[in-house]
Amino acid sequence: MDKNHQMWSDLGMDLETHDLLCEALPSAFGDVFMVMDDRPERMDYFNMVAADIHGIRPAELIEAQKKGRKVFGTFCVFVPDEVIIAADGIVTGLCGGSQFWVPEGEKVLPANTCPLIKASVGARLGRTCPYFRIADMFIGETTCDGKQKAYEILGEDVKMHIMQLPKLKRPRDQEAWKEEIKILIKEVEDFTGNKITLESLNDSIKIINKKRSALERMYETRKNSTVPISGRDALLIMQIAYFDDPERLAEKVNVLCEELEQRVKDGVSVAKEGAKRILITGTPLAVPNWKMHNIIESSGAIVVCEENCTGTRYFAHQVKEDNSSMEEAIDSLMHRYFDNIHCACFTPNEERFDDVVRLAKEYKADGIVNVNLKFCNLYSTENYFLEKRLKEEGIPVLSLETDYADNDAGQIRTRVEAFLEMLG
Questions:
Q1: CB 278 within 8 A of CB 365
Q2: Is 139 helix (H, G, I), strand (E, B) or coil?
Q3: Residue 108: its pLDDT value, please?
Q4: Is the bond leading into 110 cis (omega within 30 degrees of zero)?
Q5: What residues have CB less than 8 Å from 230, skipping those under 6 apart?
Q6: Does this model's pTM top 0.85?
Q7: CATH architecture of 3-41+56-194
């Protein structure tokens, strides 16, 4: 038994079923990423992480646990990583992005539940993802009814903490979210046995801000007419950012950005001349969900921006640094993680429409592809207002509904190609 299989066995994973996933991933990765020409050389780190996605980082997490550190699994951008890191905890993202995990989730969830929820539950209960087995505690949030009820099911199998997210953004809702952050601080302190001090919280804020700055730097290079990195590679980096060590991730992204910025100067573009520039908005694209980017870019366009949780929403807006009191630090976290995240769970949500329009202009997008996972009622219903606003702005939009399966890929490709032709 090799090192990884021994680790997976010790985690109580279903090795036989997990091996099927391990056999499929290299081919899937190769078909999406290794077929591209002129990929940046410094994507090598991210290629390595993807090639051993269930080996390298899980082994690091287990070694940290042996030293007494706790691993927290999160599902959403609303959970402030800074709190966990301030208590010497480790954060790993847990959202499932593969059809592989869906059938196991459907054993306990309705079939008409969004695939992200079904995959996330299936990955844990089916014992086929090491991150879901390693995490000592899961931290959820009440962004949608489906996730809320799914967390109850997961709570039978693993320790859960749920953050209660208000759906309006009034002053009293801000205060309610500040209280949720305070409750999280107490929960994390009790679970880790480590006190969160003003100093440790200010330090962790700087750590996560540096990661955000590096990711924003990468996105800035995509605004140029010379596009130095594909949407597929940018998406892969964003997906890895959810579970990699934040300081290492920032370092590797900044190294990559040096190459990307030089490519811009040298006129080295991954997009063919005349390729249509596409902005993607809608539901998050959890690893290894690369379907939409792959279809768009293999149809001759280039994805230049993502306005979603695996895009700008993840890194936009810094948390105020060097706070002078715990109350000020918590207030700073509230503003970043509540006022400045424009998820479809809020009502009304004009700020999101403003973001989409602004980003379309900043990234010089020729059109927008609005991607929604099936049965995500939040985003599907909000499409009415988004499409209305984009029509008023004169920005072409193609709205698509899909899941993790590939049986609709041909139909989606046909619609994407027709949209690109319509863009002229």
A1: yes
A2: strand
A3: 97
A4: no
A5: 36, 39, 270, 293, 297, 302, 303
A6: yes
A7: 3-Layer(aba) Sandwich (3.40)
